[in-house]
Write a structure and sequence with these properties.
Blueprint: E1 2-5, E2 12-15, H1 25-38, E3 40-44, H2 50-60, E4 80-83, E5 106-113, E6 121-125, H3 126-131, H4 135-141, E7 145-149, H5 151-159, H6 165-174, E8 177-181, E9 183-185, E10 192-194, E11 201-204, H7 209-223, E12 229-232, E13 238-243, E14 247-251, E15 260-266
Parallel strand pairs: 2-3
Antiparallel strand pairs: 1-2, 3-13, 4-15, 5-13, 5-15, 6-12, 6-14, 7-8, 7-11, 9-10
Length: 272
């Protein structure tokens, strides 16, 4: 297994690996360690089947049935389907499912159908973004907690005309929310990173609304500065793995035609 760096800061392509067979424990460990170190991994896997996709996720940890994305159906409930024709394209910066108490620790997404051009995915290194903050800002953020809520998606859909009032009311009443530290410590590396995102984060606990909004707006802009980002131009069969504990990502909504991705996420725990 060889690694080729994708940017000077983070991301790597895994070369000379065959995902069609059973990988030995040493190879799985090497892939996982590379994921933790590089945060985003690219594997070229055009022949990967849904069964193999799930099996690879299970070698890393328990895999989840996604909270709201549709899936491939019976026997393949753990493979979510993100189809642009169904409106399932994540075009805002986010970290996966942070409204959960234990968001996924990692996600494995494969490109199945792509538009002729466009639909790239951007990634941001939230650990590098934290490291670039001033000592005073780091001190200010220490100990702050933010509320993350699934209902924010329903609110945005309602605001832009793709959802109705009942869906918004149901999402608010469901109370799919939790609190996370604004600065998260990676459970394996000990590295600190910013853990807020525009899709799910609502407010910072204990701050006046205008101060919370100002601070979150700054952190969102700061985290996605050019020096902290990687832009992936997909090819059919590409499998991207990312560490959900130290990155954000978004899809560029600049394409026409259909874009279909299969996704498997590995459940997060207090230890991982």
């Amino acid at each position: 297994m060889e690694l080729r760096r994708l940017t000077p800061g983070f991301g790597a392509e895994v070369q000379d690996i065959d995902l069609s067979g059973d990988l030995d424990a040493d190879t799985i460990d090497a892939v996982y360690n590379a994921l933790v170190e590089h945060k985003v991994l690219l594997l070229r896997a055009p022949e990967l089947t849904p069964d193999q996709h799930m099996a690879l996720g299970r070698r890393i940890g328990e895999i989840e049935v996604h909270a709201f994305f549709p899936n491939l159906g019976e026997g393949f409930e753990h493979v979510s389907v993100l189809d642009s024709e169904a409106g399932n394209t994540a075009t805002m910066w986010h970290t996966d499912e942070t409204f959960l108490e234990h968001p996924p620790m990692g996600t494995l997404t494969q490109a199945k159908i792509l538009p002729d051009v466009g639909g790239d995915t951007l990634f941001a290194d939230s650990a590098a973004a934290y490291n670039a903050l001033s000592p005073n800002m780091k001190q200010y953020l220490e100990g702050l907690t933010a509320i993350h809520d699934l209902g924010k998606i329903a609110e945005l859909r309602y605001r832009f005309g793709s959802g109705d009032a009942q869906n918004l009311a149901d999402a608010v009443l469901a109370e799919r929310r939790t609190a996370h530290p604004v600065v998260r410590t990676h459970p394996e590396t000990g590295a600190k990173s910013l853990f807020v995102n525009p899709t799910y984060t609502r407010w910072i606990v204990g701050l006046p609304p205008d101060e919370s909004d100002m601070l979150l707006s700054f952190l969102y802009r700061h985290t996605v500065k050019e020096q902290f980002t990687y832009r992936h131009q997909w090819a059919v069969g590409d499998l991207l793995m990312w560490d959900n504990r130290s990155t954000m990502h978004m899809v560029l909504n600049d394409f026409g035609g259909r874009r279909v991705m299969y996704r498997v996420s590995v459940v997060g725990t207090a230890e991982r």
